[in-house]
């Protein structure tokens, strides 16, 4: 008897308007679990290398996992993956809310989209009934209008909608997928891939259940998990302030991206702190499906030019539209955040392109002639908001901003030195110079480019006692030190991959449920497999290596595992982390060695791939001459 | 223990853990459709409202039941369904002013909260204590807190 593993994979050929439902083999789940893991496997196996990510040849996969829709904590997540139009490497984004369980309750684990529809369509999944429907009337609508119209049209308030806004339709390279109006599969431009396929939305209603192997064990696991989470170091912060509370922590660390990373500490950031957000804007604390941490909140600006309502104005948004752009007006940040959700734009990347433009403006590299008269002075709130609208429509200067920082820097002469991206993706809110493992190494090697969530190396700067148990030295938790950071990042990457593959949230596994033995217990309660902690780590390592192989096939080498020049050469000028740069080389060397990747090329070694059961991948890379000797 | 469920609407995050726990302990599967409690979520109306049986002392579901299959048990302070008498007409579903009577999509039977026999599991798993079990005779605190919000 098989438990918890979703029954089916849906294959949807948009060009031929053909839908095929096929069983999801249990063996696939044994090796890759689900979610991000199986998404990666499908893309590696089926996607032709070297294709244009915005062409019909790209493949777009949505995936949920064995934990989805169950009592497992924070089990409301899904991954959407494709080749990224932002990085030209592995693209992947994760989102929460209640959409994923709905898909699971309809019986599906993955939806794979091929080709391109000849006119706008949406996919309607009503349990066993799956059909492509005309979406001409939805094209041009924002994500909120789209969801409201679909729920009205389909006649059931419990229908869950994941869709793109105008940004996705207009192929903005960092357009995202939005579900339930405010949950974003934000990064790597998955919304643009959806737009390129003329796929406006996926609406789902599922009414079936999920059977697990051991009900008693799952109930017990959740009881223990609630205790671990409630006693965790970060519980008070996340549950009370949401991630907005991190603004306080990281600014006080001197690790808060400000003024396009010219600064990492800003006095005025105090006006954006979690405490201020809670007092002024929070109206209700909300949670994703089955989540005890509830880091989400509905916020409201009651009046004035920035009057708005929205949900989940995260730390990342506060930095993106706030400190990164030299803006200390919290209400404008909240407004921009809601606007980005409606337009379907990734907040991190969009904040980063605006901040980059602001530094170009400051240095005189762009003028009113380039911007269509807009004044990109630091902290110009109106121009931040106007930019988002222009980006989504690709109008005027927005057409350049919509290309992302890397492509902008190739066109604006002299701007490369402060173009803050890795592998083409804009880096997130925490300044990597101030947190060597989490940011310095973690961002540099992330398979999806400048990203904190691949590693989310929490023990690289907190909980020294636990770090010592795991890595043999409490220096592992010293954020300024490079010691043991290779091991720290590798371990966390494995665990994050598993978390994304079973589809539970990284914030409860951040530290509270971090350990592989804990996750093994959950997987076993769900599936009855009786795997141990080594096997959990091995599956994580397998997923990381498969994504690596995908990227290597697309041309990635060691030189791509790097940091923006500013992070390597310009010390943080002031604040608690004054003087820091990323000391990448020693960390990268340790990391590659532990990974079994070649120090010169960054290619995996055959033994490593074979050890992970990826023999066929080793053969592929060998044929391409991209296997380490 | 005699008692009833009390929900603090300010504390409910809409996470639906109560729904899954309920379905799991009653049916052995994770399925909100089979849960006896469900949350109506209207996040931008800023309202999360769990719907559940109030264990009415004069239950409209019982009053309208054509076969007297439902009654209020004074000793347990609970509304009980006698499935031997139930003909499955669903008049009770329509009669409940709170929407607390549901139809299990697998068995076809009408279902409602049975307080897990006096130890409601949704309460146990609600980390923020949005749902609490109030023993009858000890309601004073709840009443005081409600009055203080008036």
What does this structure look like?
The complex is a heterodimer of chains A (629) and B (150). With 629 residues, chain A is an alpha+beta fold. Chain A folds into three domains: 8-205, Aldehyde Ferredoxin Oxidoreductase,  A, domain 1 (4-Layer Sandwich); 239-409, Aldehyde Ferredoxin Oxidoreductase Protein, subunit A, domain 2; 435-623, Aldehyde Ferredoxin Oxidoreductase Protein, subunit A, domain 3, CATH 1.10.599. Chain A has 27 helices and 18 strands. The radius of gyration of chain A is 22 Å and the shape is globular. Chain B has two domains: 1-51 and 115-150, 2-Layer Sandwich (Alpha-Beta Plaits); 53-112, 2-Layer Sandwich (Alpha-Beta Plaits), CATH 3.30.70.20. Chain B is 23% helix and 23% strand. Chain B is built from five helices and nine strands; from the N terminus they run βαβββαββαββαβα. Chain B has helices at 17-27, 60-63, 91-95, 121-125, 140-148; strands at 3-7, 29-30, 38-42, 47-51, 70-73, 78-81, 102-103, 110-111, 131-135. In chain B, strands 1-9 form a two-stranded antiparallel ribbon. Chain B has a two-stranded antiparallel ribbon with strand order 3-4. Chain B has a two-stranded antiparallel ribbon with strand order 5-6. Classes of the chains: A alpha+beta (629), B alpha+beta (150). The interface between A and B is medium-sized, with 38 and 31 residues.
In a few lines, what is going on in this structure?
Chain A is α+β, with helices and mostly antiparallel strands and 629 residues long. The longest helix of chain A has 21 residues, at 533-553. The mean pLDDT of chain A is 97.
